[in-house]
């Protein structure tokens, strides 16, 4: 179990390298949902996503312990940028295995941070085989996108800030998207320690619905199919993240892509900020299941804004 001390140490470790991101509210969206929503804007984070937190916490520890001379990972985008950015902070080479279908804007950003992109087929097996090959060739240390307690502790720091800044009175609920489960695990742990009356809900696209099945069965399940605009949420839970989630998350809810696009557009239009499709999933959940959320004080972690402007869904 990741302790509160571990999470707070992670926050202290990464603090010089990250933004303490703002929390925004919106009267129109509150009226539409009947809830009080507090949006933790990790789209304003370094590299444009919360993943900077976990990537930095892991890479800084690798550098401090001299565990290896380079970093390797696999990612469809935001974790790739996070590790590339973190490796640059400590002057270590980074090798990032990315699916050939990953948004071009994310590949270019990874290269912009000085990392080497190694393309692979868009499957989990290809990603894992690719990163193993890179590690064998370069001696790099793996910083997994989510199956790593150092990464999870780093992701937990977004909820630490949200709770520290706006938890009086306490949140009824905190919502995050779920893909591989690193953010949801970290958020659930931080909330468990710092605001134990607050419930945590995971939010998942219907087109990549493995987490909800795994949550219900207690064992790792595969999504019936993968077909979603939320490209950042197609990863499958690990045994590690499933364990944290089953212990500290209240439920997981799914939404179809049409709802995700509508929520994304609502944020762009009403809040005047850029978010990517994966980021819109929690708001889509609130809009789809109004009876669950009406009258509640809700924290939502807006996970990122690295959208390909050439492929907008509206």
TrEMBL record:
<dbReference type="GO" id="GO:0005524">
    <property type="term" value="F:ATP binding"/>
</dbReference>
<protein>
    <submittedName>
        <fullName>Pyridoxal-phosphate dependent enzyme</fullName>
    </submittedName>
</protein>
<feature type="domain" description="Tryptophan synthase beta chain-like PALP">
    <location>
        <begin position="14"/>
        <end position="304"/>
    </location>
</feature>
<dbReference type="InterPro" id="IPR001926">
    <property type="entry name" value="TrpB-like_PALP"/>
</dbReference>
<dbReference type="Pfam" id="PF00291">
    <property type="entry name" value="PALP"/>
</dbReference>
<dbReference type="GO" id="GO:0000287">
    <property type="term" value="F:magnesium ion binding"/>
</dbReference>
<dbReference type="InterPro" id="IPR036052">
    <property type="entry name" value="TrpB-like_PALP_sf"/>
</dbReference>
<keyword id="KW-0456">Lyase</keyword>
<dbReference type="GO" id="GO:0003941">
    <property type="term" value="F:L-serine ammonia-lyase activity"/>
</dbReference>
<dbReference type="GO" id="GO:0030170">
    <property type="term" value="F:pyridoxal phosphate binding"/>
</dbReference>
<dbReference type="GO" id="GO:0018114">
    <property type="term" value="F:threonine racemase activity"/>
</dbReference>
<comment type="similarity">
    <text>Belongs to the serine/threonine dehydratase family.</text>
</comment>
<dbReference type="GO" id="GO:0008721">
    <property type="term" value="F:D-serine ammonia-lyase activity"/>
</dbReference>
<dbReference type="GO" id="GO:0070179">
    <property type="term" value="P:D-serine biosynthetic process"/>
</dbReference>
<keyword id="KW-0663">Pyridoxal phosphate</keyword>
<dbReference type="GO" id="GO:0030378">
    <property type="term" value="F:serine racemase activity"/>
</dbReference>
